[in-house]
Amino acid sequence: MAVFCLEGKRDCVGLSVLVSVVIGVITAFLRITGAITVTPAFLWVVFGIAVGYLAILLASYLYPGQPSVCCARFSLSALLIGILLCILLAVILLAFTFVATSILGAIFTGLLLAAFSLTVTATACLVKCSALN
């Protein structure tokens, strides 16, 4: 049963990781060229959304007797990675001010948006997985 569970269940999470990497690269390119800027208000909003996601995820573990879904394991791990990276990178970008054309600032901004899009797309995979089972 465990081998059967692994077949075809990672394609949604794999697609969400691929989409997140593409979004991160595009964001880093736009940040290094100065086409977009990142304001502290945006960083606080992303931080708040990530903390809200984390609170909901932790609260969902408090309810016993939830049905275990096989593909939820992959979606939940991607979701948790995205949430924790969002929180960490938002705090880093809030702590340090980077010049608009800074390479390091562009990398951190790209990583932040990649982690945020991973959080959103992994949530969509989790909903899809839960709806199918």
Protein topology:
Blueprint (H helix, E strand, L loop, with lengths): L1 H5 L4 H22 L7 H21 L11 H24 L7 H30 L1
In short:
This protein has 133 residues and is mainly alpha-helical.
Characterization of this structure:
The protein has 133 residues and is mostly helical. It has one domain (11-132). 77% of the residues lie in helices and 0% in strands. It contains 5 helices and no strands. α2 runs antiparallel to α5 (103-132), α3 (40-60) runs antiparallel to α4 and α4 (72-95) packs antiparallel against α5.
Number of individual domains: 1
Please provide the count of β strands. 0
| CA-CA gap between termini | 15 Å
Mean pLDDT: 84
Structural class: mainly alpha
Rg of Cα set: 16 Å
The portion of residues forming beta strands comes to under 5%
- Helical stretch count? 5
- Overall, the morphology is globular
- Uncertain segments are none
Features:
133 residues, mainly alpha, 5 helices, 77% helix, globular
